[in-house]
Automatic annotation (TrEMBL):
Source species of the chain: Paenibacillus oralis
Protein name: DUF4179 domain-containing protein
Keywords: Membrane, Transmembrane, Transmembrane helix
Domain of life, source organism: Bacteria
Membrane spanning stretches: 52-71
Length: 504
């Protein structure tokens, strides 16, 4: 089981670090540095981009439309869909969240092998709801009301509510499974519609070991066990220690429905790319809540696979013409980023809703329009001198760029780079030898990733009609520099379709 104390402290440190970042580019650079350069890092990588989630993990996440599912259900069931025990939640907000995480699809088909619960712990009231167990995931939502939240409210730049840095830290963890890790987490502050009191909503999707899930179910369990952790911040140099509270959720194992897994092993050929030759659809997993697909690059250890959900990059449709919108994706490798077995080119796609309960669905169609590729293990370097003769051509992955101007001013190395339309590629430039070390130079590190992060421009993102780009590096002045180039989130057109027949 996760060490909750370590996990909570890790989340705090990560949140503090993210608060120091001033731009999405800085966030990406910071995340890359954690994964590639922190030799002591033992942190499982968070999904680098979960663009489709309303929770907006990290920064710069793109919003997508939400699928609202209409279904004929009983008034009692409709009441369950609208309410959380012990609190009054805005129906529109709850519907949108449940449409995303698949709860609405399951509930509309009267699949509820759980009972929501509410419990009071002193001045803290906690409701646990939307608890669902699949063959490899556990999903749940915790709704927490307490003066400790009300007294520490702050506002995000967009006007939404959050907790200030002096607030207690809240976490909810299941204790039925040992091999458990986070697959998706979000926090929201909403308002009770009747009392006006703030409510902290913690939504968790935990990744489980399928074998452990099967062993758990063989015991015919009737309860899921949870612990609520409240970890106070230091106050005037004193620390009171964390508090924890047990909660149990009734669970009917006899009503549990097993996921449908369709083995894919279908290859998609990719032509004309310097790095990848194809993609492989490993399998499709249909649960009562959502639909999942495992997709990987044919050389998944050397390149990072991403999806740009701002475009219609991936589309899943059934034989009836129903579209299952792409909600999110995440890396699925079980190893750490520094482990040689780690495969950053493997992702799990999550699609809203599923055809689990629809017997008329006989096949699915997966259309892959485009993906994004980043170098993971490989790179190229070139030497640049401030007095080099210009223009200076640079070749990278069979494409050519030209440095047309170099200068050093205001503590920055500044370059102008020409990239013609026929050589368009998204490339990150970096000077690793001059990046500050947090342990050796904490002030420079905070400046580099914090207050001056927005001065650094190290990524060329090609745009139509533009050929000249400016780069800036926050480095000391030198006669020469060794500059590294890495392909980063570079779009690759695929435009291929796979047909997946569903087994009876």
């Amino acid at each position: 089981m996760l060490d909750t104390k370590i996990e909570m402290n890790m989340k705090k440190e990560l949140q503090w670090s993210l608060n120091q970042l001033t731009a999405p580019e800085a966030l990406r650079d910071f995340a890359r540095n954690i994964a590639l350069h922190s030799e002591s890092s033992k942190v499982h990588p968070l999904p680098k981009k979960r663009k489709a989630w309303l929770t907006g993990v990290a920064a710069g996440a793109a919003a997508v439309s939400i699928l609202f599912i209409s279904a004929e259900i009983s008034p009692a069931f409709a009441s369950m869909l609208k309410q959380i025990p012990g609190i009054s939640v805005a129906a529109d907000w709850l519907d949108s969240i449940r449409s995303q995480d698949g709860v609405k699809n399951a509930a509309a088909n009267k699949y509820t092998p759980f009972e929501p619960v509410v419990q009071q712990f002193g001045d803290m009231k906690v409701s646990l709801a939307d608890v669902y167990l699949t063959s490899d995931k556990l999903m749940y939502k915790a709704f927490i009301q307490t003066d400790g939240i009300k007294d520490h409210l702050a506002k995000n730049p967009d006007g939404s509510l959050t907790l200030d840095r002096t607030a207690d830290f809240y976490a909810v963890q299941n204790s039925d499974f040992e091999d458990i890790s986070g697959a998706g987490s979000s926090e929201d502050i909403i308002t009770d519609q009747e009392t006006g009191e703030p409510i902290l909503v913690i939504s968790e999707i935990m990744e489980l070991n399928p074998e452990e899930v099967q062993a758990f179910l063989k015991g015919n369990p009737d309860t899921l066990h949870f612990t609520i952790f409240v970890d106070p911040e230091p106050k005037l140099g004193q620390r009171e220690g964390e508090r924890n509270y047990a909660m149990n959720v009734p669970f009917s194992s006899s009503q549990w429905l097993e996921d449908r897994i369709i083995q894919g092993q279908q290859r998609i050929e990719v032509a004309g790319d310097p790095d990848i030759r194809g993609l492989v659809l490993e399998n499709i997993r249909i649960t009562p809540l959502n639909t999942y697909a495992e997709l990987r690059l044919d050389n998944s250890r050397d390149y990072l696979l991403d999806i740009d959900s701002a475009e219609d990059a991936i589309k899943l449709t059934d034989n009836n013409g129903k579209v299952y919108p792409l909600d999110s994706y995440r890396p699925i490798s079980e190893y750490l980023p520094l482990d040689e077995r780690y495969q950053p080119g493997m992702i799990e796609l999550t699609f809203n809703s599923s055809p689990f309960f629809d017997e008329t669905v006989k096949s699915l169609t997966l259309h892959v329009n485009a993906v994004e590729i980043s170098d993971w293990t490989g790179s190229d370097t070139f030497t640049l001198g401030l007095n080099d003769e210009l223009p200076k051509p640079i070749r990278f992955k069979g494409k050519e760029m030209t440095i047309t101007e170099t200068r050093y001013e205001d503590g920055l190395l500044k370059l102008k780079v020409l990239q013609k339309a026929e050589d368009r590629m998204s490339v990150r430039f970096d000077i690793p030898s001059l990046r500050p070390d947090k342990e050796e130079s904490p002030e420079l590190w905070e400046e580099y990733y914090g207050e001056k992060a927005d001065l650094r421009k190290e990524l060329i993102i090609p745009s139509k009609g533009k050929e000249e780009y400016e780069l800036s590096f926050l480095v000391p002045k030198q006669d020469t520099y060794e500059i590294r180039m890495m392909r980063e989130t570079d779009p690759v057109q695929v435009d291929k379709t796979l047909e997946i027949e569903l087994e009876p």
